[in-house]
Specification:
Structural class: mainly alpha
Shape: globular
Order of helices and strands: EHHHHHHHE
Strand content: 5-15%
CATH superfamily: Death Domain, Fas
Number of helices: 7
Number of strands: 2
Length: 106
């Protein structure tokens, strides 16, 4: 029997960490995402205020991404992206930035 393992399988937190620079450019935070992150308890009210005080979309995204420090928060971030019509971003994260994953046998 052959066992197949994906070489580049990462947990979502590690994937988001690796893709932060790209994600800061493609996430749209201003049309419901921040409110979803608050309702899912990814962000606290003070954190939300800090994120909203950032002047550019890129900096708001970077601030949000810096607060994703657990797998649970990362999973909720992906849920919030889905709820705000950003499935393409979820796909980008879950597909490791569009990189092909190698399948090898042991």
């Amino acid at each position: 029997m052959t066992l197949y393992v994906l070489d580049n399988v990462l947990n979502m937190l590690a994937s988001v960490e690796d893709l932060k620079s790209d994600l800061a450019n493609i996430v749209e935070p201003d049309f419901g995402l921040l409110d979803q992150l608050l309702s899912l308890k990814v962000l606290t009210r003070p954190e939300l205020a800090d994120v909203r005080s950032e002047r550019t979309v890129y900096r708001r995204n970077a601030a949000v991404l810096e607060l994703l420090v657990t797998d649970d928060k990362c999973d909720k971030f992906l849920r919030a992206l889905r709820r705000t019509g950003q499935q393409h971003v979820v796909n980008f994260v879950t597909q490791n930035g569009g990189q092909k994953q190698k399948v090898t046998s042991r």
